[in-house]
């Protein structure tokens, strides 16, 4: 008698929905653990890596058309049910093919199919995996840190917060905690002791951070605190090999402590007991291409599916999270004081830049404060979120301005290499010797970027040790670490930096912050702009006075009576949040509504708009939705493509997602066009 068919449903990273049916032939068919296995399958003329999602004995395809799986790969453990459930939920929520979500969650080295040699008839002895294997063992055998550090004695607020999380760990149940601690309140110490508890229970713990730059400092802290635990570092700054090693160790449960940026949230961990999301409000948790997931939201979903506690920490929580902590959906854990008793929050002063003349972008008050801080031998931070020398060059004669050839944006003057750079598409050009329009020789830089501020401060304070940290000064393999290490070692008198230095760092001896060029964010059209600005300024302010020095922050602005600044001067996040939430509620914006955004791009704006208009008509038939007119993006042209967006809103999630599902069916039925589109659920930039 013929044995029954065994069909594997395989997910693949291909632009079709899937899963795809493949035949399982001897000797695979008797295996029990096929689900979650990596497999090698034929796909057209190619061979691809896929994952078996399920097996069954029937198929809707004609059996003689089915292809057989080439090999079941045994080199890594089968990905377990909980991980597969997470992938399925992420795919469903973000309306993406399961294969794209699941395969892209694997390290690059594990999704690359090696040539399959039929001659040997054997699963391809995966050479690279064997090599990785050796590296994992070597890494696990590394000697532990020579200088272990002890847990600090917690203050009462820290103690109370920790006790609550410990309770949830002991009970092994899901709860989302919002650790709302002002800057320098010792959130990290609470994380460390919660991690210790989780590890002592023999479980794995996952710590997410927003920036790669924060990981080395954190890694050192963790290594000193947990010398017996190798730490799996998972972020995009690591080589493919390093990432695969850390991933494999985590996935096999050989390491208990995983630290990384947003992509780390998708790492399989068979024994996860706790998730911590540091700086949970940070926009970089949202992936901005491909599967546009929010790592924070996925982390919460994961904790819920596993029935484990999750701690979100921030001095300025996302308004969504804050709202949940007010309604009781999240459990609020406040840390209202700085952990070092003598450490006071900086005094915040507004400097009205309409009042006096600026010298190279800096007010007299700011220059005087910097000079004074130099004589005190204390460090100052000049914060400015604009890199380059000057945002644009202008001809004094005819008004010509330097523009990117491919974008509707200025090209930024970089003095160091004498070139114009487009910060949107990367286009570069040599600075013209004379105006390309009228031939005039007098073309001048307009406005200020970090390089120009650095230039001026070097002239103005020739004896000062000045370090600039931004995307330009930290390009290349070594990144920001050497410069940050210099600052930590006390080798900077003045640190000039973008948001790269604003968050998380525990700098010593820093007692003055000067914030420049903040006004544009006050009137940006994105409704989240004030929230972002407040968080950013509060974060930067928080770098000052952390070790007990009296400190101040100066903000240069034209709008000294703006309510945002008033709340900031009081260090009063809650009242800022309350006021913002009231506005959001009356305007029916998140967190009181749910949004999705279709973006379209085409060589011509009119094509992108027409595409979205058709979609708008489809969606307009749905109940309970607010479907807006398609509009061009603020920066309409990038890299030669013109872009538009269509915003959809609903007061509840289900009708929104239902409508999106139908819209996607409609799109799939349309002919291919020149328009490229994407769907962003819970968009963070509008
Ligand atoms: N219980 C404690 N006793 C003494 N010092 C502490 C205690 N807890 C934390 N600290 C110290 O307080 C300082 C600030 O702590 P930490 O960096 O954890 O703050 P944070 O809340 O994470 O700040 P931010 O949000 O600004 O990054 C650190 O130098 C830390 O070592
Ligand atoms: Zn450009």
Automatic annotation (TrEMBL):
Binds 2 zinc ions per subunit. Keywords: ATP-binding, DNA replication, DNA-binding, Helicase, Hydrolase, Isomerase, Metal-binding, Nucleotide-binding, Primosome, Zinc. One of its GO terms (molecular function) is ATP binding. Its cofactor is Zn(2+). Its EC number is 5.6.2.4. Residues 168-335 form the Helicase ATP-binding domain. InterPro entries: DEAD/DEAH_box_helicase_dom, Helicase_ATP-bd, Helicase_C-like, P-loop_NTPase, PriA, PriA_3primeBD, PriA_3primeBD_sf, PriA_C. One of its GO terms (cellular component) is primosome complex. Initiates the restart of stalled replication forks, which reloads the replicative helicase on sites other than the origin of replication. Recognizes and binds to abandoned replication forks and remodels them to uncover a helicase loading site. Promotes assembly of the primosome at these replication forks. Belongs to the helicase family. PriA subfamily. Component of the replication restart primosome. This is Replication restart protein PriA.
């Amino acid at each position: 008698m013929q044995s029954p068919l065994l069909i594997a449903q395989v997910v693949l990273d291909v632009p079709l929905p899937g899963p795809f049916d493949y035949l399982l032939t001897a000797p695979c068919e008797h295996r029990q653990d096929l689900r979650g296995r990596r497999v090698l399958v034929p796909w057209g003329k190619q061979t691809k890596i896929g994952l078996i999602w399920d097996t069954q004995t029937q198929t809707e395809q004609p059996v003689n058309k089915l292809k057989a799986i080439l090999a079941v790969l045994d080199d890594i453990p089968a990905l377990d049910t909980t991980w597969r459930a997470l992938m399925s939920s992420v795919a469903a929520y973000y309306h993406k093919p399961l294969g794209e979500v699941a395969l892209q969650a694997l390290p690059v080295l594990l999704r690359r199919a090696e040539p399959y040699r039929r001659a040997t008839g054997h699963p391809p002895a995966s050479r690279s995996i064997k090599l990785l294997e050796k590296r994992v063992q070597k890494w696990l055998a590394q000697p532990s840190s020579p200088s272990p550090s002890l847990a600090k004695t917690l203050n009462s607020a820290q103690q109370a917060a920790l006790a609550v999380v410990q309770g949830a760990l002991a009970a092994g149940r899901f709860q989302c905690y919002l650790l709302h601690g002002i800057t320098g309140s010792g959130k990290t110490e609470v994380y460390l002791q919660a991690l210790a508890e989780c590890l002592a229970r023999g479980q794995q713990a996952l710590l997410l951070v927003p920036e790669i730059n924060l990981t080395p400092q954190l890694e050192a802290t963790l290594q000193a605190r947990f010398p017996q635990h190798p730490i799996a570092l998972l972020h995009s700054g690591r080589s493919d090999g390093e990432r695969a090693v850390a991933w494999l160790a985590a996935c096999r449960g050989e390491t208990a402590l995983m630290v990384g940026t947003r992509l780390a949230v998708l790492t399989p961990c068979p024994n996860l007991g706790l998730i911590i999301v540091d700086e949970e409000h940070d926009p970089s948790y949202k992936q901005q291409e491909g599967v546009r997931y929010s790592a924070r939201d996925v982390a919460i979903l994961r904790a819920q599916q596993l029935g484990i506690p999750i701690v979100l920490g921030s001095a300025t929580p996302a308004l969504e999270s804050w709202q949940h902590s007010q309604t009781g959906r999240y459990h609020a854990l406040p840390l209202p004081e700085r952990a070092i008793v003598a450490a006071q929050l900086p005094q915040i002063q507004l400097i009205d830049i309409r009042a006096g003349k600026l010298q190279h972008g800096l007010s007299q008050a700011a220059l005087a404060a910097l000079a004074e801080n130099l004589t005190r031998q204390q460090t100052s931070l000049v914060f400015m979120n604009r890199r380059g020398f000057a945002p644009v060059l202008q001809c004094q004669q005819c008004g010509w301005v330097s523009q990117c050839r491919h974008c509707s944006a200025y090209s930024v003057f970089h003095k160091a290499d004498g070139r114009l750079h487009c910060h949107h598409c990367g286009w570069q050009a040599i600075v013209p010797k004379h105006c390309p329009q009228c031939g005039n020789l007098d073309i001048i830089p307009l406005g200020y970027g970090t390089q120009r501020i650095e230039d001026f401060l070097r002239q103005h304070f020739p004896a000062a040790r000045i370090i600039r940290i931004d995307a330009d000064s930290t390009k290349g393999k070594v990144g920001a670490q050497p410069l940050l290490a210099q600052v930590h070692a006390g080798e900077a008198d003045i640190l000039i930096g973008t948001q790269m230095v604003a968050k998380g760092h525990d700098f010593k001896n820093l007692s003055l912050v000067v914030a420049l060029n903040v006004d544009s964010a006050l009137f940006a059209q994105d409704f989240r702009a004030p929230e972002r600005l407040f968080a950013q300024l509060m974060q930067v302010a928080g770098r000052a006075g952390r070790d007990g020095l009296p400190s101040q922050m100066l903000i240069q602005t034209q709008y000294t009576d703006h309510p945002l600044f008033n709340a900031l001067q009081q260090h009063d996040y809650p009242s800022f949040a309350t006021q913002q939430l009231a506005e959001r509620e009356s305007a029916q914006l998140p967190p009181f509504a749910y949004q999705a955004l279709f973006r379209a791009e085409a060589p011509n704006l009119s094509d992108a708009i027409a595409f979205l208009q058709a979609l708008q008509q489809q969606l307009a038939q749905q109940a309970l939705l607010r479907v807006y007119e398609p509009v061009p993006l603020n920066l309409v042209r990038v890299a030669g493509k013109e872009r538009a967006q269509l915003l959809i809103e609903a007061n509840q999630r289900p009708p929104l997602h239902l409508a999106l599902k139908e819209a996607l069916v409609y799109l799939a039925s349309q002919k291919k066009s020149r328009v490229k589109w994407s769907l962003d659920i819970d968009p963070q930039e509008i």
